[in-house]
Design brief:
Blueprint: E1 2-4, H1 7-16, E2 17-27, E3 35-43, E4 48-56, H2 61-64, H3 66-73, H4 83-90, H5 97-108, H6 112-125, H7 127-133, H8 158-166, H9 175-200
Antiparallel strand pairs: 1-4, 2-3, 3-4
Helix pairs in contact: 5-6, 6-7
Length: 208
């Protein structure tokens, strides 16, 4: 497994980003098979902040055992599932607009009372659909049970997916070329953001 994390990105995440890490992977498409594992943060402007990336032969417990490793090393850290990924699997067996709307209502419920209300409705409509969804503890996927310290109510992993799509052309290359392309991309992106902040700080925006 190959792992890269620049000290500047690490420090930037600690000092300026929300306490949220988005973790995801994407496949290599060239002769070399494996996966790129990406670790992306969210800054205070809700923009992507890349932190680290790695290449592994396959996503398994040894290289990417999220639930096991996080529970073991960081037992007090909150863990969330991507609602879009869960819905994509769940809708294979439970189709229909009513089911979709009720499911997302459970995802977006902001308190336990609303969550129980939508739970009762979906349980009445299709009990099996409710049971399949409850195989995973709602504390991982419903806003009603999210902690507030991270100041983030996001239920999806779009940031990681956006990061993966930005390096799509380089996923066909060899290891060295791939790592160089990724390094150049994130260094240039960080520089552009830094310059943008410096230029923007020269102006004052008045609210009318």
């Amino acid at each position: 497994m190959l792992y890269v994390c620049f000290s500047g990105l690490k420090e930037g995440f600690i000092r300026y980003c929300k306490l949220v890490l988005c973790l995801d992977s994407c496949y290599l498409n060239g002769l070399l098979k494996g996966e790129i594992l990406a670790d992306v943060g969210r800054d205070n402007n809700n923009q992507i902040f890349s932190i680290a990336w790695a290449i592994a032969e396959i996503e398994n417990w040894e290289t990417w055992g999220l639930l096991e490793e996080i529970s073991l090393l960081l037992p007090c850290v909150e863990h969330r599932f991507c609602a879009r990924h869960m819905y994509a699997h769940w809708r294979r067996d439970h189709k229909g607009l009513d089911m979709q709307q009720l499911l997302w209502a459970r995802y977006k419920a902001t308190n336990e009372a609303k969550f129980r209300k939508h739970t009762a409705r979906i349980n009445t409509l299709k009990e099996v659909a409710h049971e399949d969804l409850m195989e995973k503890d709602p504390k991982y996927w419903s806003r009603a049970f999210f902690r507030t310290h991270s100041k983030c109510d996001s239920m999806d992993n779009n940031f990681s997916q956006a990061c993966n799509s930005s390096i799509l052309p380089t996923r066909y290359k060899s290891i060295i070329s791939l790592f160089e392309d990724i390094r150049h991309y994130f260094m240039n992106r960080s520089l552009a953001k830094n310059l943008g902040v410096r230029v923007g700080s020269q102006y004052v925006v008045l609210k009318l």
